[in-house]
Write a structure and sequence with these properties.
The protein has 4 helices and 5 strands. The chain has 113 residues and is an alpha+beta fold. Strand 2 and strand 3 form a beta hairpin.
């Protein structure tokens, strides 16, 4: 099983924006624990894969180790960490993706707190 981690700032943003629907969104994000191959691949930076999940008009971006995701099958994925880092609507999609890539290039995966 993969482990899903949601960055605290994103969690607070989800609760503030969606209020009552936030539990449904959190359940969607945590559904990746059972099927970590879900989501659309957007790119990678130094072996870290950037993917997105859609919910209505919003996108939720997460990063993970690309090697483990690609090479291991569903049963062998034990230590895979999926970290949700950002959220955007359709209008700010490319700006958010570029921001994630910039943070990964300059600071690395530890830049998301």
């Amino acid at each position: 099983m993969a482990k899903v981690e949601i960055v605290r700032s994103l969690f607070q943003e989800i609760e503030a924006k969606f209020k009552g629907e936030s539990h449904e969104i959190i359940d969607l994000l945590e559904s990746l624990e059972s099927s970590p191959h879900k989501g659309k691949l957007l790119g990678n930076v130094s072996g870290i894969v950037i993917k997105e999940l859609k919910y209505k008009n919003f996108r939720f971006y997460f990063i993970t180790d690309g090697f483990r995701l690609k090479c291991l099958n569903q049963e062998k994925i034990v230590d895979l960490l999926l970290r949700f880092v950002r959220m955007s609507d359709k209008n700010k999609q490319q700006q958010t993706i570029d921001e994630i890539k910039y943070v990964l290039r300059t600071i690395g995966a530890g830049g998301f707190q």
